[in-house]
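re: the backbone from monday

yeah here it is again, tokenized this time
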């Protein structure tokens, strides 16, 4: 049997152990009880919160800021689940934040993830409702439901198209088409042959038109080059006529006549008056000839300028004609008709 001393030592040990347990519990529980926390609520409507448990973590961008305290059903709306969460006092909760259910791994356990929020938004006071957000799974499920509805509609349309009555109509149409082809096999064959021949002729005609357009463009290019050369010649001619007009032939001939008159008066005593008169007459004729040449050059210059303008206009018409043929070769066909 145990002695009295052993019983005393056992009792003291149990008392000390119990006291230590009570102190530890008080310290741990007291810390939790003494910690001030902010309470918020999240209302999920027509959303399953399976996997979410009391004590699940509440995080903000991966940072643990609180936990789930209570999950209840709204008595006024049984389709709505109210989740009470508590976060550390002073945690900034904005009005534009949303609470999303997030799965942890493949176990199916969920936690609440707060996302969103801007600096410009006001702070949400404790006791308020945080807007619920949609999870990725819900988005995928919603899109899958939409796709399923559209696929079902497509199947219904296919069923309507392949209905027995529609099949009979299609069979009737195919039968009529077959009968028509059997009765008109030779005309249809001739028509197809004629179409092939017409297509070949059209291709040859298009090739000829393209060749004609190329030849016309080459001719127009050579014509433009000749016009450039002619323009250069006319410019040189005009320059020559201007220089000839600026030479003042009349003035020169007048000075020559005056000089010869002086020579005539000087040589009068030498009896060569007749020779000087003939020289004067020759100079007068020369002056008249120069005047006629000047008038002829002026008149020819106007005619040449008019001819050049006409040639340029013709070149423009040819350019326009070749461009229209290049854009629409069928003009030649219409012109033949």
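seq for it, each position gets an aa:
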């Amino acid at each position: 049997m145990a002695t009295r001393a052993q019983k005393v030592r056992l009792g003291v040990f149990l008392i000390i152990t119990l006291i230590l347990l009570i102190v530890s519990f008080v310290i741990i529980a007291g810390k939790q009880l003494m910690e001030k926390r902010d309470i918020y609520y999240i209302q999920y409507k027509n959303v399953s919160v399976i996997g979410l448990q009391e004590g699940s973590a509440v995080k903000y961008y991966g940072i643990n800021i609180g936990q789930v305290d209570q999950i209840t059903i709204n008595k006024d709306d049984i389709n709505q689940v109210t989740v009470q969460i508590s976060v550390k006092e002073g945690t900034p909760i904005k009005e534009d934040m949303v609470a999303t259910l997030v799965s942890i791994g493949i176990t199916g356990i969920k936690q609440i993830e707060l996302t969103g929020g801007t600096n410009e938004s006001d702070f949400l006071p404790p006791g308020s409702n945080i807007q619920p957000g949609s999870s990725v799974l819900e988005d995928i499920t919603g899109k899958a439901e939409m796709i399923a509805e559209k696929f079902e509609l497509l199947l219904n349309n296919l069923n309507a198209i392949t209905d027995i009555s529609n099949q009979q109509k299609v069979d009737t149409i195919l039968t009529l088409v077959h009968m028509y082809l059997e009765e008109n096999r030779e005309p249809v064959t001739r028509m197809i042959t004629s179409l092939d021949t017409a297509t070949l002729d059209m291709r040859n005609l298009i090739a000829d038109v393209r060749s004609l357009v190329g030849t016309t463009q080459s001719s127009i290019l050579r014509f433009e080059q000749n016009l450039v050369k002619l323009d250069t010649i006319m410019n040189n001619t005009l320059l020559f006529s201007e220089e000839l007009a600026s030479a003042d032939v009349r003035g020169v001939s007048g000075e020559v006549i005056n000089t010869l008159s002086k020579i005539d008066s000087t040589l009068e005593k030498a009896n060569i008056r007749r020779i000087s008169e003939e020289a004067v007459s020759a100079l007068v004729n020369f002056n008249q000839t120069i005047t006629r040449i000047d008038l002829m050059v002026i008149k020819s210059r106007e005619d040449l300028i008019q001819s050049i303008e006409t040639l340029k206009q013709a070149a423009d018409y040819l350019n326009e004609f070749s461009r229209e043929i290049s854009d629409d070769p069928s003009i030649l066909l219409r012109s033949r008709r």
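Residues 199-336 form one domain. The chain has three domains: 36-134, 136-183, 199-336.
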